[in-house]
Known about the structure:
This protein is an alpha/beta fold. Helix content is 40%, strand content 14%. The chain has 18 helices and 14 strands.
Amino acid sequence: MRKSITRRLTALAAIGAVVTGMLAGCGGGSQTTATTTAGAGAGTGTTAAASEAPAAPAGSTEGKQEINVWHYFGTESIQLEFQKFVDEYNAQCDTAVVKVTVLPFADFKKQLSMSAVADSLPDLVFIDNCDCSAYSAMGIFEDITDRVAQFPQFNDYYDQIMATCTYEGKIYALPAESNCLGLYYNVDMAKEAGVEPPTNFEELKEFAKAMTTSDHYGFSFCAHPSEEGTSQFIPFFWSAGGDSMQLDSEAGVRALTMFTDMIKDGSMPKDVVNWTQGDIPTQFINGQVASMVMGCWRIQWMKNNAPEGFNWDVVPLPSDQIKANVYGGENLAIVKGKNVDEAFKFMSWFLDYEKNSEWNLNTDEFPAMEKVLTDPNYTEAEYWPAFIEQIPYTRARDVTPKWPEISVGYQTALQNALTLKQTPEEACKEGQRIIDEALGK
């Protein structure tokens, strides 16, 4: 039975612990220049550091409403892929022409805020799902609650991912692409070590130790002092029974001790406190680490960059008390007061499941809805099953404008514990002090 919009919003409000906060690293890539393109006659970008964009096919735009979209997709291949979708839409739309601006990821939020002040915002933006409610709270995005009530797949999205689009009972975006984490491992190294992929914390420690040799470490994850570190640690913390606002707990100590023990016994490199999510895959394919925690967004990168004969696979994250994972990805939002009707037409077209799943497959992401679990394009695709089976228990980070400050508590605990400056217990207490300050306790 189809839920009413009121019932759906009530369900979303009841979740209580979902993502937002003005974070970095929720998605998978970065970009260094800003470009603009939209078919024939597309000019240079209107933002800083604009440069020539990939060429788009000619076509008449006479009499059509111009719709501007901003994104920060980090690689040229993904930029070109998105442009293909835009070109397809422009070719069949009689009322509007979509133009695309690519901004540097590192500058995206700054540019969004500055453009809001200057009243020079675009019509649509792709935004990290962990940033979405913060910008909704700032009044930048259009309330589309009534519009999405009639959207065919509105009730198909998982509540956890839809909550990232929601602020104070109103909907300001829809999910465009989602991702979660898996354990990538070197199959040949595992065979040589005589171990199977781990399913729980104890097995993970044994796996890491057995996979370690004089030539390489057995395990790695990103403990970088940024949201990247928080996002890779927090699923293990949740799995141990943790509450996001209570790091100083049995769950916090248990998860942090597991990783600290790996540093102490030499099965994980000390450098993980400095490695980003961009650094670790290179260490993996170069044979410096035998396994890594990483997102589905690295599948294609692995296929393109791993040396010939490199035998790898992916399994779900090992769990403890409960199974847990964390959502990353992007939402698509309409800017308040702009060309809302035409922008929503493009949003509806692009987010239709058939179209959107095609986009997600091409970018190593997934639509966060139940039908993905039985979609053969995913379930029968190489490396994907490990991620797809985790979707039902993947969750988002807590909705609060204080999340950036709260996240620093996690980052501090990771840094202090994994550099052995503090015991896990001491590190959790220090991290909790920062979290409590952020919460005004």
